[in-house]
Amino acid sequence: MRRRAVVWIVWRALRREPGLARALAGWSVVEALPALVIGHAVAGAVGGFAGGDIGSAVRWLGILAAVWAAAAIGAQRVVLVVARVVEPFRDIVLTHVVRESIEGARQEEGAAARANLQVEVARDALAAVITVVRSFLFTVAGVVIGLVTLAPEIALLVLPPFLAGLGVFLVSLPVLARRQRDFLIADERSVTAVGEIAAGLRDVVACGAEERMGDRAAGPVREQAAAGRALAAVTGMRTVALAMGGWLPLLAVLAGTPWLLRRDVTPGDVVGALAYVTQSLSPALGGLVSGLGMSGVRLVVTLDRLLTPPSIPAPRRERALRPAIEVREVAFAYGEHAAPLFENLSFTLTDGEHLAVIGPSGIGKSTLAALIAGLLVPGKGEVLAGGVDAGSLHPADRTLIPQEAYVFRGSLLENLRYHAPDTGVAAVARAVGEIGLGEFAERLGGLGGEVDPGALSAGERQLIALGRAYLAPARITILDEATCHLDPAAEARAEEAFMRRGGVLVVIAHRTTSALRAPRVLLMDGPDLALGTHQTLRENNPRYADFLDEKVPT
Ligand SMILES: Nc1ncnc2c1ncn2[C@@H]1O[C@H](COP(=O)(O)OP(=O)(O)OP(=O)(O)O)[C@@H](O)[C@H]1O
């Protein structure tokens, strides 16, 4: 379908302007003139010099120089004509993609913008393919005519190995195209995987999930390496084709020279034949092999993307609309012989739910946060976020703020809009008010005020990180003692802002007062975990009551 579409579009462009086909053919002939003339000119010049007819030799060289000059003009005109042939291709493909976009077949964010870029790439690739194939055909035609008119015996020596090399290349082309395509796709996958990890690197380090993330990236990287090796194997076929088609004819002429001389072929004709092979035939085959191998494959891969509707409908959007956490029979331990932190943990949080996790230091609260964020993998059971494995979440789908907040040198606005760069200033100002950043922003001189990370207190840094998470598009927010440097009133204000914001909120509590605000509370105080509301836990769970009594002075 793709190949037919390309041929159809090129055909339409040529039919729309019949003069275009004529101009392309005419200028291609001019461009290929040296391929036709070079052997005769060299043979004539050698014959002239050898026979003492310097005038004839110089005339032949003059003809060759004139032909090269004409070919240079021809090459320039060919570029202009090819540009006119491929321009309608750009318009037709782009119209097709935009129509699909409007009709909803591919309602991905930024699809049209990305398609525009890809269409440019495809157009350039098509121009390169047309240029290369056309140049090859006209050059080979020129060489064949030149050889046959120079000495048909030489054509007999040159053409069979050349055609064999061409055949090997054409046979290997589909496999080469497939392998190159696989390699490009594997390359993109590994870049995406590494890019996603890089985007969440701070969380990864904060949660000690380097190994897990390394494992996650290792799969695509290994696949890319395998695709690279498979590609290298067929690339060898290309070298064989080039050696057969480009260099065997040369050897055949050299080895056949005695035979040629016996059949009254002159030494000048033999040198002329060598010029045909080395200056025209071999470079033409090399150009076809590398041009089709690169531009042809790029054209096929890009058109594939453009003309085939995506088979996987944008999963991220849907997940973002239905945030939910499902922790199912999870067991986790750091290492084989370590005591398990959880043995059979299960709970579900739906959109709008808010859970506070409380428990003594070192019991595993941050570990639970990392499991929910998908930064750690449970030993048993599973953690789902938005219906998929939490480990496969895109970093933009959830926000995890650890204790030590990250801010960078730049304006307060830049710091706050880090995860949502398109947010309007009015929305940022509202978030500042909600989170309780107003006073600090005022001191800084407004949203444009410069943030100097070293000059800020830990609490101020936390407020900025909270404001940033509040504005982030993620609908799953995990605050891992992210308010520990705030005073209780500021902490309450920030948590309440997140509760009003919606989505799923998990607060790893630094103070037990967080539990009083949360509709659901998870008490971690040993392997038996208790989950309930503050009220039910207080009434039914003596450990919870003790824990609160210890922590909250009455
Ligand atoms: N990467 C790790 N490798 C091995 N053990 C770890 C690792 N991270 C944490 N631990 C251990 O796991 C246990 C739980 O740690 P975790 O940080 O989850 O507890 P916590 O309840 O969040 O503690 P705190 O309130 O002090 O932050 C602790 O004993 C800790 O030493």
TrEMBL record:
UniProt KW keywords: ATP-binding, Membrane, Nucleotide-binding, Transmembrane, Transmembrane helix
Main location: membrane
Residues annotated as transmembrane: 20-46, 58-80, 125-148, 154-176, 239-261
The protein's name in its UniProt record: ABC transporter ATP-binding protein
InterPro entries listed in its UniProt record: AAA+_ATPase, ABC1_TM_dom, ABC1_TM_sf, ABC_transporter-like_ATP-bd, ABC_transporter-like_CS, P-loop_NTPase, Type_1_exporter
Source organism per UniProt: Actinocorallia longicatena
Keyword Membrane: yes
Residues covered by the ABC transporter domain: 325-550
Bilayer topology: Multi-pass membrane protein
Domain of life: Bacteria
Subcellular location per the Swiss-Prot or TrEMBL entry: Cell membrane
GO terms of molecular function: ATP binding
Start and end residues of each ABC transmembrane type-1 domain: 23-283
Gene3D superfamilies for this protein: ABC transporter type 1, transmembrane domain, P-loop containing nucleotide triphosphate hydrolases
